[in-house]
Amino acid sequence: MGRFNKILEKLFGKKETKATIDDDILTENEIKTIPFNEKQQNKALGYVKTSKLNLTPKTVKELKEEFFIIDTETTGLDRISDRIVELGIIRYKDGKIVDEFNTLINPGFSMPKKASEINKITNAMLHDAPTESSALSSALSFLDPVLKGKTIIGAHNADFDIEFLANALERNGYSANIKYVDTLANSIKLVRGTPNHKLGTLANYFRIINNDPHRASGDAKTCGELLLKLMDILNKKEKEQIEEYTRYIPSNKELEVCAFIQNIILSSGMPTDLLRFYKKGSGYISVSYPYTAFKFKLAKKGRYIVVPIQFIKNIDLPITKATMSEGGSLYKRIFFNSYEDLTLLKDFFTSTCASCLNEYEKLKKYSLDSNYFEEQIDYYCPVGCRLTEEKMLKFLEKGKNRKSVHSLDLNLPKDVQINIADLELNPIHNRVPLNKIKNNNDWQKGINEGFPLFEKGDRIRKEGKIKEAIALFDEARFKGYVSPALYESYAMAYHKLKDYENEVAILNEGLKRLTESHPNLNIEELQYSKLHSRREKAAILLLESRK
């Protein structure tokens, strides 16, 4: 009946009778004694509460045990004035049909010609059929688990069929609590590659044979088989998702570190329900609270945490430079091995997480959707990366006997200190002087004219056309494009050519212009840090090439 639904809603509006899945489910006693509202009292109606459910692992578990499928044929689209002329219901247990109910229903008026052309039900067929009251009376015992809210019922474009059923029950004084699933809505979510999601189309797609299309019994059986297929797809997706999630779960040794961090947060009095740990593809363990607070890695050369430089004072642990991907010159790697070592970073853990929590609370306060941020936590941080208190204590016990990093021979590289100002640079290039750059006082015009050139240059740089890319970067710079991304791409191009003199020179310019455009540069400015680290590395290579 899906083709009628949209037309009906446009013509007559949609009757709002459905409850959400969060509404309380009525008990059997409440169904028998439910009070009527004024409108219902005037018409002496029953009351039917409907709850539309999505296919989830929880509902699938329930459906596997038992479910019903309904299909109706009607005199038309108006859910108030039109009537059901055929009711087909199939009962499934353990995925197999165990019982079915089917009846024609005399609507009490002549069958409209257009409806008859679709469902092939004629006035002659309905002449001796039971009335609506009689048919429902016969169906009540069959539908008992559904009407009491104990068992889920399904249909294709279920809103239509369930509302027709609900209205018929209410008219005849019956009250019920119906939970239902819609195979149409769920097929749209789960099935790809079909021209549409009509019942017949989906039946062909899944090779389900419908021996009696557009009749209640035939369509109900087809819908039941479709629901089983959708349940299988959901189960498969769930298994694939779980397998995908396992890639993000830290190893037991990594969880020993996670347990210590969680214990520090717990001991500080902050909540741990926002805390998550997950592994990135590069092997880092990200600590989220709920934003990424910091990360650590158990590498072959040693265990280390990436820490902003303002936190490294008075930390008596081995320290080396961080890489550009770790944040650049504004970060350091602090090596550790034991819980004793990690205790020295207690203030870093608590203050960083406190900053994340403060930011989270501010955004949550002004959010229109109070559930949004909680949903984001679970969405972005995979299942299995939370530690219960029991697991935390278990991993703490496992990791407590590790030796301090001071007892290990890590053989870490020594930081090379270079005074960039003392470097004599004589780069050969075609760049115009800064005082001849266009649009210096109109950054928006510089973006408009320069960005397309930069974008094209960066694309061909990645294709290996380095010199052509540099020429486009020169032109973008001349037009007034001054983004840090330009200078980073410039540097990568010169680095590829092993032209470290030009790389250092262009990074000097980029850092100078970035500082001038941001006089109150924060110590956490990532763009500055990346350019600074890249320049330092290029300077070391330049000195080595001159030996």
Task: State the gist of this model.
The chain is of the alpha/beta class. The chain is 48% helix and 14% strand.
Keywords:
seven-stranded mixed β-sheet; TPR-like_helical_dom_sf; six-stranded antiparallel β-sheet; 547 residues; alpha/beta; nucleic acid binding; disordered N terminus; elongated; 22 helices
**Average pLDDT rating:** 85
Flag low-confidence runs.
1-43, 379-384
Q: Which shape, going by the Cα principal axes?
A: elongated
Please tell me how large the radius of gyration is: 34 Å
Strand order of the largest sheet: 1-2-7-6-3-4-5
Write the layout of secondary structure elements.
Blueprint: H1 2-12, E1 18-19, H2 28-33, H3 38-43, E2 48-53, H4 57-65, E3 66-74, E4 84-93, E5 96-104, H5 113-119, H6 123-126, H7 132-140, H8 144-147, E6 153-155, H9 158-171, E7 176-182, H10 183-190, H11 199-205, H12 216-246, H13 252-267, E8 276-279, E9 285-288, E10 292-299, E11 302-308, E12 319-321, E13 331-336, H14 339-343, H15 346-365, H16 372-380, H17 389-399, H18 443-462, H19 466-478, H20 484-496, H21 500-517, H22 526-546
Parallel strand pairs: 1-2, 2-7, 3-6, 6-7
Antiparallel strand pairs: 3-4, 4-5, 8-9, 9-10, 10-11, 11-13, 12-13
Keywords: DNA replication, DNA-directed DNA polymerase, Exonuclease, Hydrolase, Nuclease, Nucleotidyltransferase, Transferase
Organism: Facklamia hominis
Protein name: DNA polymerase III polC-type
